[in-house]
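README: folding subset

This subset contains proteins for which both the sequence and a predicted structure token string are available. Records are stored as plain text. Below is the entry for IMP-specific 5'-nucleotidase 1 (444 residues), shown exactly as it appears on disk.
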Amino acid sequence: MSSRYRVEYHLKSHRKDGFVDWIKGLLATPFVLHAVSHDMDDLTTTQRVRSQYAEIFDDISSLVSNKIEFDSRNGQLNESVDDNEKYELMGKSRLNQLVPTIGKFFTELPLEKAFLWEDAERGISERRMVAPSFNDVRRILNTAQIFYFTDQRRKYSRNTLKLVTFDGDVTLYEDGGNLDYTNPVISYILKLLESDIKVGIVTAAGYDEAAQYDQRLRGLIVAIHDSSVLTLEQKHSLTIMGGESNYLFRYFEGEEPDDYGFQSISHEEWFLPSMKAWEEEDMTQTLDFAEKTLRNLRERLHLPAEATIIRKKRAVGIIPGERFDPVTQRQASVKLAREQLEEVVLTLQATLESFLPARNIQFSCFDGGSDVWCDIGGKDLGLRILQNFYSPDDPIKPCETLHIGDQFAPIGSANDFKARLAGCTIWIASPAETVTNLHRLLIE
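--- output ---
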């Protein structure tokens, strides 16, 4: 009973990705047709399945290319109207018709090549009992995005990728952890900077002082400071966008040997025009209303008494808190159930969407795995800010931007999801996957 409930619960719409699920459905047909073969040495069956999978991915690549062309043509002809009106005027691309929830694509995706790579690594086409999974498709999409940029580099003998951004928790380091000197991702970040690629860490962690980020990313800033390969300009190409899009910090080095780390950048230097139009009163009322909603939910859902509501300048959230464990004789973190976290974040999102002051600004509601937050702004703004900050006269384009994060799945409750509006993305599930993808991007 519990197992069946878990399966059905995870099929709810807010936990699905329409494009990935659609691809899974397409791959199910050749899998089912050839699942009758249980002979692990049946090379002919494997070749047939691999060929059919590859053909499907090649067709999807064509649909993606068609959508990019369609959206480009649509935008050129109707730049004065919003996206919904454009589609009303010109219809929809074939991919939009097949997957109504599909977002934007900024580059073509060599999906057949990516599938063949992943198949050689994981034996997807040789499986007879387990169909291509969500994670299989997610990895193939990631690999295709990596291959696009590596193919472009070989074609033009230079990087067409100009900006790489990262989430923090579960992307660069474990949830709640720090980036210490032993973390293998550090060498790849240095390689990005050495290749004249700008690097931004766009995180929900909303500290308004640099010291907090210096502590969490100590291993990285020491490695950058000690590097004899990076120029000072390349070192300055590392930034942190905190609180989604609320605080900007840049790496700096002073005259004294120990004077280095992150330095705050004034809002006047990087606020986007749309953000300058936000009224302070609307932001305050939005956070006040979100805080009131969190208090009501804490009572209604019978959350632990230790669950604490925290108010910051540009965010409000609820964290699990701690209680004394008589067995271990230590303070232990109180766990909130997955269902409680999702009820809180989805209710908070839906409630704010109908709150007038919140509709005058941008906000993000998300669950971080153990807590729930409402932030002013969003990661799409964070990416756009960095695209403009690094190149004010000629902003970095979405097709020249890559965001790596783990919070993409639940629409309305994952803060990396909005990054898809401002750049190309890679959806990882652990810091180890981040390292693997960076290795493919920079080395292979």
